[in-house]
Amino acid sequence: MDKGLQSEGKMIDVQQMIERNKKKKSFGERIEKIIPFFLLLCAAVSVLTTVGILFTLLRESIGFFSNVSLVDFYTGTSWSPWSGEYGVAPLIGGTLLITLIATLVAVPLGLMSAIFLSEYANDKVRRVIKPVLEVLAGIPTVVYGYFALTFITPMFQSFIPDLGIFNALSGGFVVGIMIIPMVASLSEDAMNSVPNALREGAYGLGATKLEVVFKVVLPAALSGIIASIVLAISRAIGETMIVTIAAGATPNLTFNPTESIQTMTAFIVQAATGDTTFGSTIYYSLYAVGMTLFVFTLVMNLIAQYISRKFREEY
Amino acid sequence: MLGQNEQNIKKRMEGRVAINKVLMVLFGMATAVGLVFLVLLFYRVLTQGIGYLSLDYILNFPAPYPEEAGIYAGLIGSVFLMIIVAIFAVIIGVATAIYLEEYAPKNKFTEFIRVNIQNLAGVPSIVFGLLGLTFFVYMFNFGYTLIAGGLTMALLILPVIVVAAQEAVRSVPAEIKEASYGMGASKWQTIARVILPAAIPGILTGAIIALSRAIGETAPLIIVGAATAIYTLPESLLAKYTVMPIQIYNWTGRPQEEWQYVAGAGIIVLLAVLLLMNSIAVLIRNKYQRRL
């Protein structure tokens, strides 16, 4: 640069041009080096989110367990935090009851839909029905809650007269409707990826369509189907608004679906909407319950990933 | 003897074919169940809510009487919240996707980021609410404000946007990239001027679908303290706010029957916004699908 400035004359100095280009280039080079670093920082946000979730759940749970013993929390069978009883079993029981009902609704319906779409329906029907079915997964959960409380419960009440306004049955049923498309869509993808040669081999041996479904397609797509079911169950465990609105707020260790119960998620909502003072034991109990919920869903998700990785069929 | 055998086979054959037909009908009916409930849900919401839906309803603040209550604060609150979510989630999400697709070395750390994003997508939304409560509400001291809610929701939909943006970046044909390198462009020049413009339709579609998920989310916003009764629009990032799903939740929980109709009208507005967003996403996808 110095040389370029020193040189005189109107003729364009070659040296100067080279220097100027170098300068430009070095600016460009700097950008080339800064950009990946900036992008890496952004990618780190998702890692920080996970770290943040673990950090906050652990730290506040430890705060909780310095007031309430870990053993009491996990073995106690009575949950009434406003009078100091912190046995989480009724909340876990409530969550499991909802999940069980939802699974009983979603797995048969979802699997049968998947079989119908993948094996029986023609292309035209499939292309219309599959996206429409997936709309079910896109409806906000608060809308499902409204639907469960104002429509499904009254409908069930006409069959079961002593059904309360808040009950596990309608909550679990509607959660099941919500996760049908998860089971149906992912299972249908798995069945679709079974190569046609396998089916045609079975047809060649004289099998009917149904026999092909049960003896060829389902076994071949099993890992994908199980993974889809596990993922759907994990969704049901973490579902919040439907159960908060329709299943009630009564921590109740029961397996009677007509009773009002409370799930882990519904308790978190209840405690957060109430006047829970920052730093109180109830405030900390939010995180202990949240931690338990997080572990439940994490284990389910890891199982789903393990199944689809380990048993992936390659054709 | 031969005739007898043939008859047996024919009988069994007929049985197998009949079972196939019966179960085919059963499978079809099972598929219909999901669709029937979808129709029932829309029918129920429409018949309950349409009577309360009017221009006044859209332009009124929440009120103690069902006849005067409106969704205005929730509607505008949702729009403001989505703007915040879009800014943070799209920038960070697209940057993450570009890093993973174009820069990330193939090592353990990159694999860790990938698995981590996959797992984040499976974390229940209410846990994100707890994260926001600790960090944004208390630690950063934002309180129960618009920015605390926005940042919480941005983290919630980040994994969805990253995955969509990754797919969009990956689907840019290699020839275009190589042509750019061949012209002497640097890596960042290629990304900024070739890859990103080609990937924008895919990114936009993914972002809108992710946002339409965020606009219906309720649980995390309850945890980070979205208010239920708001009589002014939020004037700054540090103002109190409400959103449509919170209003609907609040109305649904009231015992008098009229509030259910008010909630129904709110759901119609919410579903209309969702429909609008998804239509835009589909339009963008259809318009640009054939170009590459």
UniProtKB/TrEMBL annotation, chain A:
Keyword Membrane tagged: yes
Protein family (similarity comment): Belongs to the binding-protein-dependent transport system permease family. CysTW subfamily.
Subcellular location: Cell membrane; Membrane
Protein name: Phosphate transport system permease protein
Membrane topology: Multi-pass membrane protein
Species per Swiss-Prot/TrEMBL record: Halobacillus trueperi
Function field: Part of the binding-protein-dependent transport system for phosphate; probably responsible for the translocation of the substrate across the membrane.
Domain ABC transmembrane type-1: 92-304
Chief location bin: membrane
Keyword Chloroplast attributed: no
GO molecular function: phosphate transmembrane transporter activity
GO cellular component: plasma membrane
Alphabetized UniProt keyword annotations: Cell membrane, Membrane, Phosphate transport, Transmembrane, Transmembrane helix, Transport
Pfam families: BPD_transp_1
GO biological process, any: phosphate ion transport
TM segment ranges: 34-58, 88-111, 132-152, 164-184, 212-233, 282-304
InterPro entries: MetI-like (IPR000515), MetI-like_sf (IPR035906), Phosphate_PstC (IPR011864)
Superkingdom to which the source organism belongs: Bacteria
TrEMBL record, chain B:
Compartments reported by the entry: Cell membrane
Membrane-related topology note: Multi-pass membrane protein
GO biological process: phosphate ion transmembrane transport
MF (Gene Ontology): phosphate transmembrane transporter activity
Keywords: Cell membrane, Membrane, Transmembrane, Transmembrane helix, Transport
TM segment ranges: 21-43, 71-100, 120-140, 146-169, 190-211, 259-284
UniProt family annotation: Belongs to the binding-protein-dependent transport system permease family. CysTW subfamily.
Entry protein name: Phosphate transport system permease protein PstA
Organism expressing this protein natively: Halobacillus trueperi
Lineage per the UniProt record: Bacteria, Bacillati, Bacillota, Bacilli, Bacillales
